[in-house]
């Protein structure tokens, strides 16, 4: 009996760890990203709550329907795209319109496999360089925070660095705990009294073509290339055949539903999915779906904490929250840079993409992520043609 109980506990424990570590690692990034594109504190809390509910429902349905540990999560690199779009004077309704365009494109990738293949065929060096360019300013925030608020920021970075060596999975959640303590020191505890149970606030979308190109398309590209593709790889590595149509349609529908209440996007999990789909979840691969079911159930009470999360982010010095966000995506920056520069033939195109995106330039109302991809694509095509002509 004890042995059976312990093996049943394994996937439940894996789902719990994936939910807590996934939420704690990047909820501040989601809130900050939504605020950066025009959301009020209440709308940002609504968006986080909505995205948690979307993750919960899709994970529960996937677990019960497919009986495999196919797991969904919010788009962490997508939230970084939003944060990178700060100070562009975006109305939140326009941002929500861009989110919806992204959701429809993900849905179409599931319904029309040719589109999905076309998107995933975007050269990896360019997609990775674009993501690296988006992440760089965010990953500089810990350095800036230590320089401007050393007494508050330095302990956060030190705790993250120590646990990154000893217990990497808990490095960012622990840094977030230290950040909360720093907020209490800096702002007292009054901020907690402003927190309430989050309300789902409907946000009527409006569609600005410039915002769709600046926010919606980069959000779509990083969600597909940075999350969905690695998510399929995680599943196949652990011996599961994840149905692409189901995964992308569920991601598109879940994202679209969350969009109407301020959420940005959901996608296949990668790091958290590895926790639930791997052998440490359960020795019997046919029982690992219990981890995804547990994960989905836990995201409901986690979502109810969105009001408290919003109050925390609103009370904290903005550079402190961005610093924690930077620590959360440091691993993504490292892998993006490695992937971008892996092929020597495409390094120039990748570096130019990275530099243009990281510059944050806005030309004719369109943000740098689009221009970075365009410049990188043109350079890659030109150099490829030149090499063929020289042969």
From TrEMBL:
UniProt signal peptide: none
InterPro entries tied to this protein: Benzoate_Transporter
GO cellular component, one term: plasma membrane
Pfam families in alphabetical order: BenE
Superkingdom, taxonomy of origin: Bacteria
Molecular-function GO terms, alphabetical: benzoate transmembrane transporter activity
Keyword Transmembrane appears in the UniProt entry: yes
Transmembrane segments: 12-36, 48-75, 95-115, 135-164, 170-188, 200-226, 289-313, 319-338, 350-383
NCBIfam families per record: benE (TIGR00843)
Name assigned to this protein: Benzoate membrane transport protein
